[in-house]
Amino acid sequence: QTSPTTHTKFGHYYDISKKMSPELCQSVKWHSFYLHEELSAEAGMRVWNMNSGYARLLQSIQRIISQEGFDGSDPQKKQRNVLRIGIQSLGSPLWGDDVCCSDAPEDPHSLTKFLYALRGLLRKSLSACIITVPAHLIQNKAIIERVTNLSDMVVGLESFIGSERETNPLYKDYHGLVHVRQIPRLNSLICDVSDTKDLAFRLKRKLFTIERLHLPPDLSGTVSRASKQELAGSTGLLSSGCGAVAMGNRHLDF
Predict the structure, then answer these.
(1) Could you read off the pLDDT of 10-46 as tens digits, one per residue?
(2) Long-range contacts of 131-139 (CB under 8 A, 24+ apart)
(3) Pairing of strands 208-212, 83-87
(4) Tens digits of per-residue pLDDT, 120-139?
(5) DSSP string spanning 22-66?
């Protein structure tokens, strides 16, 4: 929401410096999937015309949904929570996919086929899934567009590490940008567009905060020559409309 909220406390506040206790992890029912262990018994298996890693993961999710009673088509005999699924670095070489290694991968459709089948499982079950994709490693932009279209909500993080913005004093208070690529559009032909587009994140000792990007005015004398020329050109266009006189490359005076 663009307007300030009236509540005194909004959102969730997690202390990222704390770790979950072993007792809490043991009390929660959870399932893990390690591709190396899953493929040790049957290597090279291909199901639904996709690579073995995606096929085994899809079978594991389908088995948990069926055995644990999260299938939406079956009558629910008791109250249940939502099955939460987390998949890390989907599309990376760890899953046996080469979309991150080449601009023309051997099987560019395995990733999208897996997402399409997973989308069908989520629609008919009491489950939700969050996936991380190393988009900066995938060279084929068409694959990124397909992944975006097959997702309900897409959020991208752009870090300042290794870029010119890391040493730029204008971005000294932030560590990266947040790009809202797509938001849910259920029962609609087009997706809604958020009014807030300039978002940045800041990593603190205990918090990961997302806020609006507020850049301070650049009043220093280290403005680049290109910026000065652009400013001079813009002032030349404005001089005819506002009545001020701009001679040469001089700035407007008010």
Answers:
(1) 566 778 888 888 898 888 888 888 887 776 655 545 5
(2) 131/86, 131/87, 131/90, 132/87, 132/88, 132/89, 132/90, 133/89, 133/90, 133/91, 134/89, 134/91, 134/92, 134/100, 137/92, 137/100, 138/91, 138/99, 138/100, 139/100, 139/102, 139/103
(3) unpaired
(4) 999 989 999 999 999 888 88
(5) HHHHHHS------HHHHHHHSTT--BTTB-HHHHHHHHHHHHHHH
Residue entry with tokens 């913005």:
165
Q: What is d(CA 132, CA 134) in angstroms, rounded to the nearest whole number? A: 7
Q: Is the dihedral of CA 162, 165, 168, 174 positive or negative?
A: negative
**Bridge partners (DSSP) listed for residue 2:** none
Collect all residues with Cβ–Cβ distance below 8 Å to 11 and sequence separation of at least 6.
none
